[in-house]
Amino acid sequence: MEELLFYCRAGFEKDLAGELAAEAAREGLAVYPRFVEGTAFVRLLSADGDPAPLRDAFSLEERIFARQRLPALHPLEGLSREDRVSPVVERIRASGWAFEAIWHETPDTNKGKELHRLGKALERPLASALRKAGALRGQGEAQGCRLHCFWTAGDRVQLGLAAPESSSDRPGGILRLKAPRAAPSRSALKLEEAWHQFLTPEEREQRLAEGMTAVDLGAAPGGWTWQLVRHGLHVQAVDNGPMDADLMAGGQVEHIREDAFTWMPPRPVHWLVCDIVDRPGRVADRIGDWLEAGWAREAIFNLKLPMKKRFETVRDCLDRLEQRLGAQTVRLRARQLYHDREEITVHARPARGAAD
């Protein structure tokens, strides 16, 4: 590897770069990010030219604004239309990389979408050439590694090598979900994606079980409540606004017309969810009230981001929550999900070893 390559949402390159720079400062790593706003990716390079310290740093699991993390080679530029395959094969041969699959990807931008046909056209000839070169191997022969060909222009590609344990196994790092017709709003997709992001399949089965209880703060019209009900939970939906009539007809939802920032539950619940449009600090403080009081065991909530200093705002909210609740008691994970927009989603759960 010569650098690290990260994918992100277009427009959030600066926030991802700030996040990476902050971690580098904490760990004493001499690195610098390179990006162009609106391109949906950030490159991270070693300041002294030695990429070795990057290999095990900046894990994807701990990232907020990154969708994918790839150890990568420097970009190949100026590729000829007549032969884009040979320079890629030569670079791979020199790197010594071996892999079991090839993914052609582009940035998640309108410009990137125009390059999809190029990747399709190169799939077979590149795979054939790399198989002959000994780099593309059979299943189980290269530890599950994948080659990512990240096309940012017709004559420019960056090659990354993904290991299963340190990268996303989704193309583009994106979980694409089908919008459920029965849901009261498309916001339902955000909670579904959050469960896939933060919980394993086994955890979803255990902790989203029939008969459990939940509170949805700022619930109307009921997109997140609908997801909870679909898993068999009984929900108290707190909002002065109207709830979806079909959702209320099922009998699993109690609509509480109260202010989400002042209402207190009569008894603790398994889950607290919250997608309120308000200042992120105010929302984080309210979630802190709930977790500190023990009103909910686990929470998923969104923080709407300001126009400027978005990473700094997020870090401040999370730091305040950790200081208030204690990192040994509650574990926080945050991610800007694909179905998020100008926001991030946070999961709060009991830390490993914390008492039930």
From TrEMBL:
Domain of life according to the entry: Bacteria
Q: What is this protein called?
A: Ribosomal RNA large subunit methyltransferase M
Give the record's family classification. Answer: Belongs to the class I-like SAM-binding methyltransferase superfamily. RNA methyltransferase RlmE family. RlmM subfamily.
- State the oligomer form and interacting partners: Monomer.
Catalyses: cytidine(2498) in 23S rRNA + S-adenosyl-L-methionine = 2'-O-methylcytidine(2498) in 23S rRNA + S-adenosyl-L-homocysteine + H(+)
- Ribosomal RNA methyltransferase FtsJ domain residues: 185-279
Active site location? K304
Top EC class, one word: transferase
Q: Which residues bind S-adenosyl-L-methionine?
A: S187, A220, P221, G222, G223, D239, D259, D275
Q: Which residues form the Ribosomal RNA large subunit methyltransferase M THUMP-like domain?
A: 83-161
Which organism does this record belong to?
Thioalkalivibrio halophilus
Question: Which PANTHER family would you find in this protein's record?
Answer: RIBOSOMAL RNA LARGE SUBUNIT METHYLTRANSFERASE M, RIBOSOMAL RNA METHYLTRANSFERASE FTSJ DOMAIN-CONTAINING PROTEIN
Which GO BP terms sit in this record?
Answer: methylation; rRNA processing
Q: Which NCBIfam families match?
A: PRK11760.1 (NF008734)
